[in-house]
Amino acid sequence: MNLPNKISIARICLIPIFMVFLLVPLPLGTWDIYGEVLPISHVLGCLLFVIAAATDWLDGYLARKYNLISNFGKFLDPLADKLLVTAALLSLIELQMLPAWMAIIILSREFAVTGMRLVAAADGHVIAASPLGKWKTLFQMAALAVLLLHNFPFSIWNIPVGMLLMWIAVLLTIISGIDYFLKNRHVFKHSM
User: Fold this and answer.
1) Which segments cross the bilayer (predicted)?
2) 25 is in which domain, residue-wise?
3) What CATH number corresponds to the domain at position 186?
């Protein structure tokens, strides 16, 4: 197994640990920073989330730089990304820090695009990530990280940056999903 695939597997292994820090009431205490009280377990969970999200860039970079692209990696990398985002979204819903409808839009788009990619792959076509899809991912990860930190440090000034980023991520999710389907509608015409 090559290094990028090992990194993707490590990312998947971080997910349950990240969720334990967020969802299990661990007796780690809190940090009081400028009057904002943050559970230390949530800070650690956010740190694991950021590390896992950053490894997505790292494994892709290494795979391209050292020509270590494999079919297993093409399957594993997006799976790891979707599992990480799903875990973060569901955790935030459980913590009542994110409305479920936002998560449903994001997850529906992810399943739909993944399904389209599977249909295309069965016909020998590869659907690459679009620039809009990359922007969607960037805003999703940024929004999730800020929300996992209870909107800190922006909560000091009462600016809902986490939710503003999430609104942008949801809009980009919708727009990029429509863009994927319009640009790749031939995939369905050929498979019917």
Assistant:
1) 12-34, 40-62, 83-105, 163-182
2) 3-191
3) 1.20.120.1760
